[in-house]
């Protein structure tokens, strides 16, 4: 993915190390380069926002529970489809467990 514009930090480098940035596992100097890149590159900013939302959703929904292997495989498959630019099918990913009612 690239917006076609030249950047100090290349889009491919940003996307290759996106999870290090999301997980705060890189030096501040590298993180600042990524923040600057997101300010000028809307496709990378959109990708960052999507990955950040997925990470928050997984944390909120799964907490510290062990994730069933088949569910993890389904989710990772969907993530890979999205990363490759494909549209995942509109089927719901099921854990096999009954849904809990939530107050919204």
Automatic annotation (TrEMBL):
Pfam families listed in its UniProt record: zf-HC2
Domain Putative zinc-finger, first and last residues per copy: 11-44
Region spans: Disordered: 82-104
Superkingdom, taxonomy of origin: Bacteria
Biased composition (Polar residues): 84-94
Family annotation (NCBIfam families): antisig_RsrA (TIGR03988)
Protein name as it appears in the record: Mycothiol system anti-sigma-R factor
Organism: Streptomyces tremellae
Gene: rsrA
């Amino acid at each position: 993915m690239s917006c076609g514009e030249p950047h100090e930090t290349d889009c491919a480098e940003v996307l290759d190390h996106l999870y290090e940035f999301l997980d705060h596992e890189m030096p501040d100097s590298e993180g600042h380069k990524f923040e600057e890149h997101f300010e000028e590159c809307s496709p990378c900013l959109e990708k960052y926002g999507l990955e950040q939302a997925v990470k928050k959703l997984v944390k909120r929904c799964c907490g510290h529970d062990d994730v069933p292997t088949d569910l993890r495989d389904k989710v990772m498959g969907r993530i890979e489809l999205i990363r490759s630019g494909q549209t995942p099918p509109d089927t719901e990913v099921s854990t096999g467990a009954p849904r809990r009612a939530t107050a919204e």
